[in-house]
Amino acid sequence: MAHAPLADPTSGDGVHDVPASAAPSASYRVSDLFRDTDEASHRVTGAEMRQEHEDALVRVRLGVAASLYATLRCKHQPTAAHSLRVALGCSLWAASRGVETAELDQLEVAALLHDVGKVGVPDELLMKPRRLSSDEAQLMNRHRKMGLYILLSCCESIEVMHIVGNAAAWYDGSRPGFELHGQDIPIGARMLSIVDAYDAMTTDHVYRPAMSRERALTELIECAGRQFDPDLVKEYVELQLGDITRLQASVAQRWLVQLDQDTANRFWGFNPQPWPQDAEPQLLFQQKLLDAMHDGVVFVDTKLEITLWNRGAERLTGIGRDAVIGHTWSADMIDLCEENGRTVTHVNCPVVNAAEHGRQAHRRMTIRGRDGKALQVNVHTVPVIGPNHTVFGATLVLHDASPESSLEEQCQQLHEQVTKDPLTQIANRAAFDQTHARFVSSHLASKSPYSLVITDIDHFKRINDTFGHQAGDEALVKFAALLRDGCRPGDLVARYGGEEFVVLCTNCDSAAAARRAEEVRQQIASTAMEMLDGQSITASFGVTDLRAGDTHDTMLRRADRALLTAKDQGRNRVEVIGDESPTQRNKRPGLFRRWFTRSDAAAVAGQDLITPVPLKVAIEKLRGFVADHGAELVKIHENDLILRIGGGAPLLRRTSDGAWSLLIEMSFSEQVLLRRSTAGQASDQLNTHVRVTIRPRRSRDAKHAEIREKAEQLLVSLRSYLMAHNAADDEDKGVLRRATTLVTTWLGSRGGGTP
């Protein structure tokens, strides 16, 4: 199976200097605590507090050289925030390896400033709302030389220079412009490249959403031995899959307590300038009002840089605010067209005319909706003009003018009117059951992302026992209100029962849902409640998203399993079971596709699967399939096993499966593939081969169409859980390659003639 190389976060648009197109890039989960908080967006969930914390971290680590980081942040806030997350990720990883203090200092400083050269990149490249062209990518790549030039002017550490200078080198030596490869690359540079790529893959970009943690780790595994050190990738993946809570505390202790100014300043000789803090409380009220609006609202300045993108704009366009804030406005960003379908150019764009010429406009147009289809909107653009007739920018208001609202919005409005929980005034259990089933069907049909969050209040019984049931009811109402405030239009928050709540997040993947859950978790944990004598409550969260072959039951079980994991690991945390690979989700069958079936006539479905992960990881993923589908292990022998689903299988409390029973027979084997780079260096990659056969428990049931349909559905779901693809696809490609070689050889022997 051929894979495109990982996105290079330093190139700006995720394009490598190689012929293959790059996969999307993106974030490091531990750094969600320090995620980018662009002051222009004015988030109300602790944004100012996180900005202050970020400033403290940078000042402690860089000392007098904090001015370099401040310069980068003035140039491009998202890049500065990315650099801080990468530095914290490298510090955490190095702490787990027991790296010496001197080497750890060098790695942290290099990670914080590895992108400082972007201060010399033109604004039109940094702010471009779409993927860069190949020429633009080459121009963007010049920032590495600029960064080295800047550091040479002020940094006295040769080791820091070596780390920054080689962080973009590929392990197999195939990337042009770098002399070192393999173990010759400094270990700090090899570690930095992995954390850098992981953060880039799990961060939202305007041209694609963030990947889930699971998918990002899979990408690292697939590129091990080529782009990254395979041993370090294995170590990093194991770190991410383990419990890093203590390491996070250790890193926080090191950065904020143990480091002193003399330690930080030994690399530098500059005087720091404090970052201005001028946020006004009134702006928080304005932001709350804008986010509560159903219409989309966008602010741009005189340079057409987007400074605000409210939740209404997110709902209408499907583009998150973090992906566009700081980028230059362009009509093709949302496919803005005239009502007759004519494309809007820069000259006749109403936003440009308002910002640059002070012209107001109000007319019917179309944009690309969140489902990818054209959506009719009323566009109102108003210039922002000061007392001296100075134009400061423009406001764009988008009002949904489509003949009828989306299915999700209709369901939301209906349930709010007739199916509310009497205590919390949010949707009740019946509303959730109906809406969740409908959402699963509609999102599977449209192939759009959809996530489910389950949460409950930690140790709720103690609240009732200590403060009384009335205080417990007030806590439930307060918690429900916080969940509702964190929702976007079209989402649904419901009380499932007792202290347990669910949130349905439409057009939202697990990574974005987890970030929203984390914001709510932090907010509820820091909110003092009067009925609890000023104490706060905490909550645990389980997050998952829709997978191919899912039903409303399997998705709910998977989210429930994530919630139980959060409780088992100490509560007051967010646990995610992420989605499958977009590549595998949209994978098309080969020309010679065939299903594997045994000679037994009772078999109704089967396939040979290949998953690009070791056997141990594949088995862990299979456990999730077993738990979510209520499967029963019938037999196991060495690497062969049989599962039973349906009928007498033990089912969870939320299931409603009918009286059917299927046996799934699986045989596992681990394969070692030898991969050779363009430089001739060989590396091993572990894949797992899974042979799957599905048959009814009773042979006479094989003729029923419903049984066959259920078997096909289970096969698709199993392939999704294992992140696997059909082995026949690889074989078909091999047949085509061999056939092409034979024909070419035969024609060559005939002197180029025809048969």
Description of the structure:
By secondary structure, the protein is of the alpha+beta class. It has four domains: 44-265, Orthogonal Bundle (Hypothetical protein af1432), CATH 1.10.3210; 289-400, PAS domain (Beta-Lactamase); 407-579, 2-Layer Sandwich (Alpha-Beta Plaits); 605-729, TATA-Binding Protein (2-Layer Sandwich), CATH 3.30.310. The strands form three sheets. It has a six-stranded antiparallel sheet. β5 (374-385) and β6 (391-400) form a beta hairpin. α20 (460-467) packs across α21. The longest helix is centred in the C-terminal third of the chain and has 23 residues, at 727-749.
Task: Give a brief rundown of this model.
The chain has 755 residues and is of the alpha+beta class. The protein is built from 27 helices and 17 strands.
The CATH H-level superfamily of the largest domain is Hypothetical protein af1432
| End-to-end C-alpha gap | 33 Å
Mean of the pLDDT scores? 76
**Helical stretch count?**
27
Main CATH class of the largest domain? Mainly Alpha
Number of domains: 4
**What is the CATH fold-level name of the largest domain?**
Hypothetical protein af1432
How much helical structure, as a percent, in the residues? 40-55%
Q: Radius of gyration from the CA trace?
A: 27 Å
Structural topology:
Layout: H1 47-62, H2 66-75, H3 77-97, H4 101-112, H5 123-126, H6 134-140, H7 143-152, H8 158-166, H9 187-201, H10 213-222, H11 230-241, H12 245-258, H13 261-265, H14 281-292, E1 296-301, E2 306-309, H15 311-317, H16 321-324, E3 337-338, H17 350-357, E4 361-368, E5 374-385, E6 391-400, H18 407-418, H19 429-446, E7 450-457, H20 460-467, H21 469-485, E8 492-497, E9 500-506, H22 510-525, E10 539-545, H23 552-568, E11 574-577, H24 582-585, E12 605-611, H25 615-628, E13 632-637, E14 640-646, E15 661-676, E16 682-696, H26 705-722, E17 725-726, H27 727-749
Parallel strand pairs: 10-11
Antiparallel strand pairs: 1-2, 1-6, 3-4, 4-5, 5-6, 7-9, 7-10, 8-9, 12-16, 12-17, 13-14, 14-15, 15-16
